[in-house]
Specification:
CATH topology: Arc Repressor Mutant, subunit A
Distance between the termini: 28 Å
Structural class: mainly alpha
Shape: globular
Oligomer: single chain
Radius of gyration: 13 Å
Number of strands: 3
Strand content: 5-15%
Order of helices and strands: HHEHHHEEH
CATH architecture: Orthogonal Bundle
Number of domains: 1
Length: 101
């Protein structure tokens, strides 16, 4: 699964600095660290400024998250698989180390 995650992460880590990358990071962090999955409505309510300009959150989420984050049958934003959380924590830690080092 790591090889697949690596390919997925390569796509999203190549986003240009700016609004898309900031939104991607926000969505990913919510999906990774929320105590319970957030519904699309709850997510929109937590970040109204960032979500204000999004017409279709389902589509945006799919496009920006590299398929790491999906909307489940209950309309909640969840990681595609529990192993994705572990991979993403490791990958993001490496990115932050590189950026600060």
């Amino acid at each position: 699964m790591d090889r697949m995650y690596y390919c997925m992460f390569s796509v999203v880590s190549s986003l240009e600095e700016g609004e898309d990358q900031a939104l991607y990071e926000l969505l990913l962090l919510w999906a990774m660290y929320a105590e319970a999955p957030l519904t699309v409505d709850e997510l929109s309510g937590t970040c109204p400024t960032q979500m204000n300009s999004i017409l279709d959150l389902h589509h945006t989420l799919s496009e920006l998250s590299g398929q790491f984050v999906v909307i489940d049958a209950g309309n909640a934003m969840v990681l595609v698989h529990h192993s994705a959380r572990k991979y993403l924590r490791k990958a993001l830690a490496c990115l932050y180390e590189q950026a600060s080092g």
